Amino acid sequence: MTEDLTKPILYAARAFVCRVLAWTVILTLGVAVGQQPVSKTTNSNWMTIDLCPVLLDESAEVPAADSGVLEFLNIIPNTPVTKDQVLGRLESSLAIMETKIAKMQHSAALELANDNSNVQYHQAVLEEAREELSNYRSLGKNISRSELTRMELGVKSRDLAYQRSLQEQKQTALDAQLKQTAHEASQARLRNRMISSPIDGVVMNVLRQKGEWVQAGQPVVRIGNLKQLKVDCLVHIRDVDLRRTTGTEVRVTPATLVTESCQLVGQIVSYDPEISSQGNVRLHIRVRNEEVDGHWRLLPGMSVRVELPRADKQQIQGVR
Questions:
Q1: Using one digit for the tens of pLDDT, what is the confidence trace for 120-130?
Q2: Which phi-psi region, left, alpha or beta, contains residue 37 (left: φ > 0; alpha: ψ -120 to 50)?
Q3: Which of 10, 145, 186, 290 could form a disulfide with 99 if both were Cys (CB 3.0 to 4.6 A apart)?
């Protein structure tokens, strides 16, 4: 009777222990995979690292430079764009009218500044008065002192009028410059109503839609440069010589196309100045992407295989 009761208990205990061991193995493998790079060696000179993430090396969230209603946005995701290409525009009727007014004001001020007829008139009057005074003085003793004084005052008065006309012309020239600056400012405000791409790339996300109110500085479109991407990979510190790492060429292969014909060339541009608790250092690799039949070989978010030259053990030990 006792043996009959003991057997089920032993079977249950064994099953429980087996389950615990199985879950322990699964969790251990999962932690190991999450913390360490998946790597293997193809030969003595090259090291292969799998599941390296592809990231954008250059991207930009294009903001609205001013506040207003989004009047149009003529792009969709995955659309190629070029630097300074207009992507959209805020409602601009008022800004357009202000620009026209400023342009007309500048034209009027410039025309007035270029008109020197007033200066020429006062200059001619002054020269005539001076000539009359000189002729009167040439009469010698047959001149009246009071008349001479009157004519001298007339010359001074006309000279002051001439100097005042010169000053007025300078003021009109300054006004024209101010109007020109105001016109340029209105043009800048109008340009701020445009939403333009700051880089060459592809539309990754459209964050706002036509008819929405957009605040100044609020992102409207996200642009990414797919021609040049970045790949991050973890390598154990014992396998790299950090003194010679930067500038090293590597081979990059998409995880779904592991063939020699699909390999891309990359270059290590930097590494993190901090080592993980597992002894891994993160390398940053810049890769020149390729477009085939209108599609890019690499896309952000993909995983790739990286092959890089293995450092000489003696050199690494010499550094340390």
A1: 999 999 999 99
A2: beta
A3: 186
